[in-house]
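Newbie here. two chains, one complex. Structure please?
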Amino acid sequence: MAGAVKRKITGDSHRQSRRGTEESPIVKWVLISVAMAFCVVFLLLPLANVFAQALQLGVSAYFKALIDPNSWSAIRLTLIVSAISVPLNVIFGVCAAWAIAKFNFRGKSLLITLIDLPFSVSPVVAGLMFVVLFGMNGFFGHWLQDHPVHLFGKVYEIKIIFAIPGIVLATTFVTFPFVARELIPVMQATGTEQEQAALTLGASGWTTFWHVTLPSVKWGLIYGIILCNARAMGEFGAVSVVSGGIVGRTETMPLRVQSLWQGGSTESEAAAFAVASLLAVLALVTLGLKTFLEWQQERDFERAQQAPATTQEERRFPSPEDFR
Amino acid sequence: MSIELRNVTKKFGGVAAVNNVSFNVNEGELMALLGPSGGGKTTVLRMIAGLEMPTSGDVFIRGQRMNDVSVRERNIGFVFQNYALFKNMNVFKNIAFGLKIKKWKRADITARVEELVKLFGLSGLEKRYPHQLSGGQRQRVAIARALAPKPSVLLLDEPFGAVDAKIRQELREELVRLHHDLNVTTIFVTHDQEEALEISNRIVIFSEGKLAQVGAPREVYEQPANEFVALFIGVMNVLNTEVKDGIARIGELQFPANDQPDGTRLRIGFRPYAVQCSPDLSLYPYRAVLRHTFFLGVMLRLEFELESGLKLRSRMTKEEYAQLGLEEGKQVSLQIRNYRVLKKEESSLPAEKEISYQPPPTIAEHI
């Protein structure tokens, strides 16, 4: 919806001459310059710098840094973690948004608050919470230690902290609100009439969800997934607490960037920027997709709001012949 | 009998939206559920559809008790107020949706959709999406979608609420024509009494969740069962009179009320057409001045002010107006041809009374 507001503001100032309520041109240009300068200094320059630093030792060094076994393992781990936690949050987000948008129940506002919790809790605290719960001395940690899993004649001890499950848990927690947050307003705006119409036509709940509900919220859902994925891949704080940063095993990309950066040598620094550049590319792709999806959503929204087309041709009402 | 409601009550959080309502709808009828908003008419429609379940009472469709039958299995067609078209599907897919659910063969689906597209004058629009259609087209797609699986009854919630006045008239005529052609039992909800009077076979009138009257349009207009119906259907002059010496009086107006004791308060109502006037001041018993003339097309609405300051509404054609040589500010004499004593929300009203315009001598003495 932010996109809609933005468009409206720029659209107005282009179309109309200065109104009495508008600020003078000087104020306008000062404000624009400040905002622009801020964006350039704090956003664009660092971004450009990431790529410049990554490529300082040449293109071949850049790719060598990326296929370094430890960096490569970090890239793979990041992909695995987001491949698990994003679908988890999609399932949860759709359920939560459905419940909140379509039903009235006791504790609804509590649920909304809880969904927002990960936004308000510092990721490091979230990570520590998992360490406390699943660590060697934690409540679940003890239990898991005492109850190893027997599978195919072998005994596995399930380890959460300083292992992949812990990273998945922490990432899922931190990225928990994105899908639900995006879907709730879209589902609320769509209402329940289309679903009811499907029911009167004999459709089952599942058919209704698959053919009516999901298509009508698809842009919001994809948008939520993109944001969720970007955060899942870029999360540092919570993951760094639970992962233990074992090189080649529990290091994700952001952690790898840090450990390379702390390596000290020029090569190591360049490699850090090489891995960082991948995250930067991810950020740019996310931004591009986000803009596209906002535009799609806005278009759908406008269509839904649009008064019926009333061109001459369409106004024509069927004559009795049409009914023969 | 197609649909029957027996003592149906629906409560939302302790408040009865529908209160002990019973009526039935005959096979092939075009029935209007009429009432002010909040009257419970939409809730009744949704209970027939199965979108709401009654708190108590029974709903029957074609003799079968439907209380425990889900909306999916009731075989009804429902048209929502805002049509609720599937916005991600084109016209063809919208109409075909119910048929696919019922597992029709592909060829049969295509044939049925084409038949409906033709019937509803939607040819050439099959590939369009709801946002590319006009309001009237959307409504026709919604009705076609509801009718596609051949439902036993077609239910429409405020079908003409979402379109502008000009198209509304055409849509009304279309619904009548459609009902005539397909002969499917149809129930629609409206708050517009004119709409209900114009197109339905029978009208169910609701007031605050209760059934106020069921009857043919003419019946509810000419023999309203209570004051609510009398005031809701058409325009009515209503006067608060008090009985003295067997005459109900207000200002100079007098209505015989022989059977009532003195001091009884009576609400007297009469339609505008019951007020007759003449420029001949000695012809009718009351004197009045024509204050305002409102132009309504063929008809004119007139407002007369009696000598006592009472105001009465009347209506007549332009021709009558010209013949009588009326103009604003003109002095006339008036009579009230027939009137009713209105009862509050109770069953039937007493039959309309004709009054003689020569007041009995006893009354004349009082004047």
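Moderator note: The interface with chain B takes residues 193-194, 196-204, 207, 211-212, 215-216, 218, 300, 303-304, 306-310, 314-315, 317-318, 320, 322-323 of chain A (CB under 8 Å). Residues 1-15, 307-324 of chain A have pLDDT under 50 and may be disordered. Thread marked as resolved.
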